[in-house]
Amino acid sequence: MGPRFQVCLFVIFIQILVVAASTNSIDVDALNALKSKWKNTPPNWVGSDPCGSSWDGISCNNSRVTSMVLAGMDLTGSLSNDILSLSELQYLDLSNNKGLTGTLPSSIGNLNQLTTLILIGCSFSGPIPDSIGSLQQLVFLALNANSFSGPIPPSIGNLSNLSWLDLTDNQLNGTIPVSSRSTTGTGLDMLVKARHFHLGMNQLFGSIPSQLFHSNMNLIHAIFDNNKLTGSIPDTLGYVQTLEVIRFNWNSLNGPVPSNLNNLTSVSELYLANNNLNGPLPNLTGMNFLNSLDMSNNSFNSSTVPPWLTSLEALTTLMMEHTQLQGIIPVNLFSLPQLQTVVLSNNELNGTLTIAANYSSQLTLIDLQNNSISGYTAATGSSMDLLLADNPICQGAGATGSYCTAQKTNSSNFTPLNNCTSVTCGSNKVLSLNCKCAYPYTGTLHFISFSFSNLKNLSYYSSLSGSLMSAFLSNQLPVDSITVSDPSIDIYSYLQFRVQIFPSGQDQFNRTAVSSIGTLLNRQPFQLNNFGPFFFIDESYSFAGTTSKSSKTGILVGAVIGSFVLVLLFLGVGFYAFHQKKRAKRAAEQNPFASWVTNNDIDGIPQLKGARSFPFEELKKCTDYFLEDNVIGSGGYGKVYKGTLASGQIVAIKRAQQGSLQGALEFKTEIELLSRIHHKNVVNLVGFCYEQGEQMLVYEYVPNGTLKENLSGKSRFQLDWTRRLSMALDSARGLAYMHELANPPIIHRDIKSTNILLDDRLTAKVADFGLSKLSDSEKGYVTTQVKGTLGYMDPEYYMTQQLTDKSDVYSFGVVLLELVTARAPIERGKHIVREVKEAMDKSKDPYKLHEILDPALDTTLTGLDKYVELAMSCVRDSGTERPTMGEVVREIENIIKLASLNQNTKSTTTSSSYEGSIHNPYGSEDLFDHSAGFLPLDIERQ
Fold first, then answer.
1. Where is the signal peptide (predicted)?
2. What region, left, alpha or beta, does residue 449 occupy, with left being phi > 0 and alpha being psi -120 to 50 degrees?
3. 56, 169, 720, 750: the active-site residue
């Protein structure tokens, strides 16, 4: 094939690409018409080919516009009928453009391919057009935080695929439409696939139709708060067994609460406050997942505190202000294990308030103002905020008590701390938790539901920021860190957080990043522990000085099309680069580290200590060409294969899939770090492969699963007390080696029961070093972005961003508790550390913890007291108060000696029974989520 023919062929190819990229002319006209009516459109909205030039916010398929994501672009103008021409549009998000005004055009009903419509935080007004019921493919409809008025169109009932309906915070009025009341025979009762009815903060009036709810529905959220609804709550509500959150607060409802409400055993939040409900207090026995209950300011019949309250083990928040309660408060009410807030003010409660020693350790507020309480006795050291103003106890001499003057608060001034004392920012930049100065994208998260009321509990903020960060990174958004601050609960019982989102790799987000972040937050394709749905209202973001990559691409494409000479020049450069690439590839195949040369590393070859470089062909053969039958684990990074080397050694090979490859420097660094570790209680790195675009790590094969699997009963081994102590000692020795003997020392940063593997003799080995960091012996800590696993993460590390070896000690303390309880670190919103503390507080003998011990263990365990004392010392709040891993090893050795001298129970499984056993050590566990460079953050849900 001659050079001239190659040039001609390439030119023809370019012409084909140009033709293929051109946008449908009707879509071009529609976008240009919208552009003429809007101000502040992206600067790269130029030219006649939005698809080929990659206009910001515009995505295409086969030359047709299928997505418009323009969230937070500061657009101003109106949405005209021109939108109807985008007949293939599937996703439209114009949220947080407060300058978009006017009405929704009725032509929006012509977008019959639309699945997602998000207009949150704009300034649209007028009625919601009835034509919206023509969007038969619509799954997600969010029109909240606008100024829409008029009734809810009954035609919405035609949206048979609709899952999410959010009309919160508008000026909608009229009655709730149901099929029996509308002339067209449609209404919200027809939405049997809907999971979310968010209709709060409007002006809806009239009664709640009984037809609205029925047993065929799949609703999890019935949100109707802050309207003008009257009449009674229909008993048909009790037929919707899937419900989890119910909000009818701040209406004018009357009549009794349906007696069948306790059929809704999945409900976690029930808000009925600020109505005119009467009759007896409902019996909520059996609602065992209920964590928030607010029935305040109603006209229920006078009654004593109902006994069923003390059976709600999941209850965190109890609000029964002004509900005609009378009599003495049961002592055991305050011992509900997760109780945080109790508000029983403005009732007729009397007698002596008694708070026993077993009160909930999470309890932070008891508000009993304006009752008839005459006495108060409390356990020594009780520290919750107690409000008893306007009770007899606060008259005369008793008025000096602190509980007579304290005021409750529904907000916290919490702001995460950083350790950036030497860093200052100018030009209106903000300092992030990672000590970087940048312009953050800022706004407020408005939560419709949440499972807690203690705003001073920092673990909730850790969970929120970690989960959001994980969502950003899993969607490949350029986010470096998040600051969550200033939580508050408003008078309508909504939770708000201010959030600052910092850019990665630069000091400012571009338009594409801002709109992608905004649409991810408001579309919410992820779940948050302890938090329900929310909507995000941003603060205007300045894009001054940013340049869109897509703009540069458009300019380049235009230049290629407009100038044949430039094309030829491009071809010449391309052919030269192609030949250079082939030469570089041949060189790389001879030396896989040729591309890793740096100024400080002439050869670029990792400084290996025992690990070898495997040719790709060798690993391909030893896995039978990566046969699926040899897959022993998989994850977001790729798959893990079992293989047999030519030497006969069985290995586990982690193979990165395309798209998950980390940078060469990061991969090299990880290999160098892993190759430093050689200990019988640490999984050994055998070698690696970096050829032909592949990144693979080769480990020793560890056959008997993870510690978590064996504790959960998924293996055939019964772990007695002696064996568990041995596993604790093994893993402690591995960690102590990394901290104290490795040169330089290594901090693991992700110690947990799934990262401790068991070999054929059930010897424990520490594994998975993807998040590990080399320790700084001079400073004693490493300032780094928070990474780890929820439940095991050191709270001091989260707050300060300072990683120390004591962070590993905290995580190991959680593992020690997991060993003796066989419980996950977080179960049903409760942390194992707090659970053990509560169990210790409830007993006169602090080590009679049989209620939470693994039932598989004997009731008498020699050395249990010392073991628990050691574990709790590891999880102390301050790292300086925790032992070193060397001290942990010595203490476990002493406990084992004590247990061996007083051994009453023999192991049911001898070491010989472990020989030759085969088990998948990886199971369904994702080995790759924790590798530095593989994914920047790992926050697991427990």
1. 1-21
2. beta
3. 750
- The per-residue pLDDT of the chain, averaged, comes to 82
CA–centroid distance for 593 within its chain = 37
Query: pLDDT, tens digit, for every residue of 576-635?
Result: 555 555 554 544 444 445 444 433 343 444 555 567 889 999 999 999 888 888 887 766
How many CB atoms are located within 10 Å of the residue 766 CB? 25
Whether 750 is a known active-site residue: answer: yes
C-alpha distances out from residue 569 to 551, 555, 564, 572, Å: 21, 16, 9, 5
The sign of the torsion formed by the CA atoms of 23, 29, 30, 36 equals positive
Residue 461 · residue 512 · CB < 8 Å: no
CATH numbers and ranges of domains, the chain: 430-538 (3.30.70.960), 601-700 (3.30.200.20), 707-914 (1.10.510.10)
Give the tokens for residue 336.
Answer: 């509900």
| Ligand-binding site membership of 654 (annotated) | yes
Query: Is 97 exposed, middle or buried (CB count within 10 Å of its CB: 0-12, 13-18, 19+)?
Result: buried
Which residue in the block uniquely carries the two structure tokens 């989260």? 798
Residue 673: pLDDT above 80? no
Q: How many residues does the chain have?
A: 942
**For residues 145 and 143, what is the distance between their CA atoms, to the nearest angstrom?**
7
Contact between 685 and 611 under an 8 Å Cβ cutoff? The reply is yes
Tell me, rounded to whole angstroms, the distance of Cα 590 from its chain centroid. Answer: 44
Q: What is the pLDDT of residues 684-730, one digit of tens each?
A: 888 899 888 888 889 888 888 889 888 887 666 778 899 999 999 99
Q: To 10 degrees, the CA torsion angle through 120, 123, 128, 129?
A: -110
**What is the DSSP track for 644-660?**
E-TTS-EEEEEEEPTT-
The average pLDDT across 475-500 equals 87
Three-state DSSP state, 518 = helix
Q: Tokens 């169109």 identify what position?
A: 153
* Amino acid letter for position 32: N
Interval 335-353 mean pLDDT: 94
> Contact 126/149 with Cβ under 8 angstroms?
yes
CA distance 209 to 176: 7
3-class DSSP state of 120: coil
Q: Map residue 223 onto helix, strand or coil.
A: strand
Q: What is the mean pLDDT of residues 24-47?
A: 92
In angstroms, how far is CA 451 from the centroid of its own chain?
A: 15
Per the DSSP assignment, residues forming a β-bridge with 172 are 150
Query: Using 50, 70 and 90 to split pLDDT, how confident is the model at 223?
Result: very high
Classify 21 as helix, strand or coil: helix
Mean pLDDT of the region 292-305: 94
HSE value, Cβ hemisphere, 13 Å, CA-based, for 795: 16
* Distance in angstroms (rounded) separating the CA atoms of residues 119 and 141: 9
The answer on pLDDT for 330 being more than 80 is yes
Reduced DSSP (H G I as helix, E B as strand, rest coil) percent helix, strand, coil of the chain, to 5 = 30, 20, 50
Is the pLDDT at 58 greater than 80? The verdict is yes
What percentage of the chain reaches a pLDDT higher than 90? 49
Residue in this structure with the two tokens 């046969």, named with its chain if needed: 627
Q: How far apart are CA 593 and CA 586, in angstroms?
A: 12
Q: At what angle do helices 805-821 and 832-842 cross, to 10 degrees?
A: 60
